[in-house]
Each structure stands twice: as C-alpha cells, then as structure tokens.
Amino acid sequence: MNFSRNLQRLRLIKKESAADVAADLGISEATYNSWESGEKEPELNELCSLAEYFMITVDNMLDAAFDYTNYLRLVKAKGLLN
Q: Across residues 3-16, what is the average pLDDT?
C-alpha cells in the first residue's frame, strides 16, 4: 500500500519515532502503528491531520510516485529535522 509506505518514509525522513508522531497528533501509538503497517487506514480527518503534520498534500500521502528527495530538501530548508 502506498499510504503506509509513504507514512513510514515521511516519519523516518523527519527522524521521529512513531510514538512522537502519535503524541503530536493526539492519537495512540497503536493507532499510528496500525496505519504505518497497513493494518488499518485513517479516517479522512486523520489523513488531513497527517498531511498537515508532514507539510504535504493528501494526494502526496497516497501517491505511489511521491518524490522523497524534494520532501527531504523541504524539511532541511525549514530546519525541521530532529
């Protein structure tokens, strides 16, 4: 699934743990992990929150051809790497 793979890669690029992302979003780590593993999919409002958190569009969250190189440049330029 594109979404779960993208979600994991976005988190890893930002060098954050699943627990940190879950806490920042106000959800349980188990819920976040179920999205990242592909067991479950987020509701639309949760998907929008994830896209906002990672500063990308919902379309990019779901895109099989999402360009991680450009995303990495963006987070570096904004000083968002931990």
A: 92
pLDDT at 75 over 80: no
Helical ranges in the chain per DSSP H: 2-13, 18-25, 29-37, 44-54, 58-62, 68-77
pLDDT per residue as tens digits for the range 46-57: 999 999 999 888
To which residue do tokens 């958190």 refer?
A: 53
What are the CB-based long-range contacts (under 8 Å, 24+) for 10-18? 10/54, 10/56, 10/61, 10/71, 11/36, 13/68, 13/71, 13/72, 13/75, 13/81, 14/54, 14/75, 14/80, 14/81, 14/82, 15/81, 15/82, 16/82
pTM of this structure: 0.85
Where do we find the tokens 């979404």? Answer: 3
